[in-house]
């Protein structure tokens, strides 16, 4: 891809974010810190990503295909890990972050791993001494003796929900390779769960699913990032709305 094609592709990402019709009439609220994980399987000819279909009964994005993710839990700051975050990822997570710290950056990455476990039953990490796991949502990792490996996680994007939406998130998007799956808990998804089904799909096919605009754009960002080597040194795209228009900046 030449430079002109790359610029046009990036401009298209921003256009897609701006073309979505949104109700921005709600009172202003502060966005909540959130983390999302794009699990990718590159063992075959075509990379595949894991998406879940949200329950139709949910008021928030019913029936949409999404990546697992959610808010930060207090225990995420205390969870032991097998290996720390890459320093370049940590530094970018701390940019444009109110009261930034290495602990809060680490908690975001851990939240993505924990939420993936809660919503899909997949424990990401390596076998290890999980004796110091804090009580609460991390207990499956203690039970199966798995420690999250933050050395294997990549920070690939950030997006803030526009002002005027009923729910707002300052979402950080991460990716990990499917080889990081250390254990599977069955029965987590189903008709009464948050995600009713999970699908592994090639990147190109996944873009055709019914998903929020930001999910589709982050798939495109990941595709471009893989083509560039999926390196921690690559800048991280940051989407936010300013004066009614989304901007794409780099961290």
Describe the 3D structure.
By secondary structure, the chain is of the alpha+beta class. It has a single domain (3-250), classed as Nucleoside Triphosphate Pyrophosphohydrolase (Alpha-Beta Complex), CATH 3.90.79. 27% of the residues lie in helices and 27% in strands. It has six helices and 13 strands. The protein has helices at 3-19, 87-93, 102-120, 139-143, 203-206, 213-227; strands at 32-41, 48-54, 65-66, 69-71, 122-124, 126-127, 146-147, 154-160, 169-177, 181-184, 195-202, 237-242, 245-250. Strands 1, 2, 3, 4, 8, 9, 11, 12 and 13 form a nine-stranded mixed β-sheet that branches. Helix 1 (3-19) packs antiparallel against helix 6 (213-227). The chain is globular. It starts with a helix and ends with a strand.
Question: Could you provide a short overview of the structure?
Answer:
The chain is α+β, with helices and mostly antiparallel strands. The chain has six helices and 13 strands.
Please describe the topology of this protein:
Blueprint: H1 3-19, E1 32-41, E2 48-54, E3 65-66, E4 69-71, H2 87-93, H3 102-120, E5 122-124, E6 126-127, H4 139-143, E7 146-147, E8 154-160, E9 169-177, E10 181-184, E11 195-202, H5 203-206, H6 213-227, E12 237-242, E13 245-250
Parallel strand pairs: 1-9, 8-12
Antiparallel strand pairs: 1-2, 1-4, 2-3, 2-11, 5-10, 6-7, 8-9, 12-13
Helix pairs in contact: 1-6
